[in-house]
Amino acid sequence: MWELDEAESGLFSPLLLSYYDLPSPLRQCFSYCAIFPKDHKIGKDLLIKLWMAQGFLGEGNEMQIVGEEYFDNLAMRSFSQEFEMDENDDGILRCKMHDIVHEFAQLLRKGECSVVVSNGLEEQRAEWYHENVRHVRVILDDEQAMIPRPLYSAKKLRSLIVDSCPHSTSTLNASLWRVFDQLTCLRMLDLSNNRYRRQTSITELPHQIGKLIYLRYLSLEGNIGLEYFA
C-alpha cells in the first residue's frame, strides 16, 4: 500500500484533491468505508447507522438527515458507484466503491481499519494487527477458524464485524464471551453473517455483553437459534 506522501504524486492524486475538499466530518465518514471488503454492496441505511454508532453525525434528532446528506454528497463527488435505486422514490439503496477508491480509503485508515481472513492458521499471524486498530472485519473462512487472538488485545477497538462460514458458528459461540469481556470500547458489533447470507447458529449471548456500555449498534440478524442470554 502506498504511503500518503507518495500518493500525492501518483494514482491517488485526484482523489486526494477531492478528499481534502471535504469537510472534516465527511472525511471520516468516507474513510470508514474501508471496513467493507472490495466489491461489497454497501447499504445506505446500514452505513448511516454505522456512522451514527461511531459518533460521526453528531447528536440529536437530525442524525439520519445529516447521514443522508453526507451519503448523497459522497455519491455526488463520485466516491461511490454502481448505485442500486429504490423503485418507489428513486433514492439510493446500495452502492459500491471503485477498486481504486477502496484502496484509497484503506490507505487513509492504514493501521486503524483491517479486513482479516481467518482460516484456522491465519490467527497465528498478526501482520494486520496494529496497536491503533479501531475497526476490524473478521471473515471466519473455515470450520476451524477462530477470532484472531491478537484482536483481544485491541482495547481501543470501536467496530467489529464477524462473517462466519456455515460450519464455524460453534467456534464463534465459544469465542463470544471473550469478545464481550475484552473489547469493552466497542460501539458497533455485527454478528449477522452478511457475507454468506446463511442462517447462523449463535445460540446464546454471554452475560459479559453487559460490559459493552458504549455499544450503539448491534446486529444479530439471521441467528434463528438465538434464544437467551447465558
UniProtKB/TrEMBL annotation:
Domain of life where this protein originates: Eukaryota
> What is one Gene Ontology biological process annotated in the Swiss-Prot or TrEMBL record?
defense response to other organism
Q: Which InterPro entries match?
A: Disease_R_plants (IPR044974), LRR_dom_sf (IPR032675), WH-like_DNA-bd_sf (IPR036388), WHD_DRP (IPR058922)
Is Repeat given among the entry's keywords? yes
Domain Disease resistance protein winged helix, by residue range, is 35-105
**Statement: the UniProt record of this protein carries the keyword Repeat:** yes
Pfam families, alphabetized:
WHD_DRP
Gene3D superfamilies recorded: Ribonuclease Inhibitor, Winged helix-like DNA-binding domain superfamily/Winged helix DNA-binding domain
Q: Which UniProt keywords apply?
A: Plant defense, Repeat
* UniProt name for this protein: Disease resistance protein winged helix domain-containing protein
